[in-house]
Request: fold
Amino acid sequence: MRKIIFALLLGAFSTVQAQIEFAPAPKLLNKYDVMDTCQFKITYKLKIVPDTQKKSYTYNDVQILEIGKNSAKSYSYMLYEKDSICTKLNAKGVSNTPLLQKAVLPMEVFVSGKDNQTTVVYRTILGGPIYIYTEPTENIKWTIASSRKTILGYNCQKAIATFRGRDYEAWFTMDIPSKYGPYKFVGLPGLILSIQDNNKEYNWECIGIKKGNNKTTINKYKWEYNNTTPEKLEQIISRMYKDPIHFMQSLGAKVRNETNSGLSMPYNPLEK
Reply:
């Protein structure tokens, strides 16, 4: 039934515009491995410019950074919210759950302070495969400036760095002496509360800070993963955004394009 609904919605939507947005389908959260105990939970508002030719068109996500004793995890709260609903409904015997109707950053990023490894879980659109890779945590070469400002009542200092093809300006606070930040941004002597690339295409702004407790854990869910590398995953993602219909069809979904125009999703890679 869901595959048929996809085809009908796509046919109606594609008559309006040639660019479309899909998010990953919800997943169950009832099976997981505990990676660490959460000491801080940081909430960021994330704004993404997916099309460099249309700077006024943005994705807006809410990102969570969970900081533990020896590691950190960042993920989309909007996806997590749908996963939580799916898990609760599944426990009641309901199989069809609502989909997220907008694009988000569909990654879970685990940074381990013990072995200096970063693991990325990437969820492709709808019910597509979930990919995973692990790489050495990059030693970002930060330059700390003298500029200061206040964010959410915390004294912050400016730092700049180049990371994976983008130049970034970050604001960190020594009031919370953590080396972590959202995504893969690590290595400053205080928690990153704001970070944005110089082209203003990716922008994380902290909107909330909450202390954890011994009962709050950082979890890695027991989903079915496909092992890959950063290079191979980037090729997969590029193909998915360039032709999402063919991508879904290759997974067995009954999706068709009822217009004569090509359909694509705007894509502006975070790492270049």
About this structure: Residues 1-18 have pLDDT under 50 and may be disordered. The two ends are 38 Å apart (CA to CA). The chain has one domain: 2-250. The first strand starts at residue 32 and ends at 48.
